[in-house]
């Protein structure tokens, strides 16, 4: 607990360091970024009331940057940090600690919560709709004016927690996956239309990464084979995503432009070592490996002994833990996404 509190204050002080002093928080000349989604984008919204279940607040998370845990599920930066940096902006402040960093408010806000989904995922995390409610409440409270919203960008990162939860809830999930995807995208559409109604002019949405290649799936083959039967989910999800975004682009009241960030292709180009992509020494082997399938990176036993091992050089690994890329992995994937984002912004 003491350790967690320390990390928390470290994050706060870090934000002040990053920002320096600047007056007036609703200055609409700053490029605001509003972030929604899960652990692929969360920079500190996960409640530490969850104790060690919020592993991102404990060692070895954050070991590369900033060399302390900050609530990011990585050894360092995550996708939202790279997007903000590309916009020549600071990483937006996590919603949860917004009161502690008023000078960061002109850069937008990060509402993403690790573990969340479009639907509820059973662990009390704010779903996507609730995260959008949080943006609306900031507007209603006058933190962001309509004018500043009109010059903002949104990043929506949905990385598959809905499927994990569905698989746990429904023993025949495999038979019902089409129907589930249909319902999921009906809700996704409602959520994205709300961002349009709020007046965000540019919305970037990630598609689903190759969930079949996460260390969680490749562990049975000693991190050599992506799980082909799972790859169907990503395929169908991304097909539905293309359709949805096409539909939204053609939509009736289109002051909002939508862009798909193809993280699926970005990840695969690195995992398959496609020519021109960043070379990673270990594309499938995670840096932080739990000692068994039943434990996780960051887990301790009753005596406080580590139930995981950490590699010496995280930058040689694409994956950090059983589900998340390293900072180097995100940097490499972002290289792939950059040209598309540049054209869009
Ligand atoms: C900022 O807001 C002011 C007043 O709300 C408006 O006059 C101005 O055009 C805005 N500037 C930009 C860059 O949007
Ligand atoms: C999102 O969470 C809110 C608050 O718990 C709940 O009322 C709403 O039904 C949820 N939405 C979806 C799509 O699951
Ligand atoms: C801001 O925009 C919303 C929706 O477009 C509108 O209902 C509201 O009145 C506007 N607020 C101000 C202060 O202009
Ligand atoms: C994975 O590696 C372990 C230890 O090196 C070995 O015992 C096991 O047979 C390997 N499994 C596969 C599927 O190759
Ligand atoms: C996917 O394949 C793995 C290994 O072949 C198997 O254990 C698992 O049950 C399969 N999952 C589904 C949903 O068919
Ligand atoms: C646009 O309008 C058409 C016809 O009214 C409707 O079918 C479609 O769903 C609308 N698109 C969006 C994105 O709201």
Automatic annotation (TrEMBL):
<feature type="signal peptide">
    <location>
        <begin position="1"/>
        <end position="23"/>
    </location>
</feature>
<dbReference type="GO" id="GO:0016788">
    <property type="term" value="F:hydrolase activity, acting on ester bonds"/>
</dbReference>
<protein>
    <recommendedName>
        <fullName>GDSL esterase/lipase</fullName>
    </recommendedName>
</protein>
<dbReference type="Pfam" id="PF00657">
    <property type="entry name" value="Lipase_GDSL"/>
</dbReference>
<dbReference type="InterPro" id="IPR001087">
    <property type="entry name" value="GDSL"/>
</dbReference>
<keyword id="KW-0732">Signal</keyword>
<keyword id="KW-0378">Hydrolase</keyword>
<keyword id="KW-0443">Lipid metabolism</keyword>
<dbReference type="GO" id="GO:0006629">
    <property type="term" value="P:lipid metabolic process"/>
</dbReference>
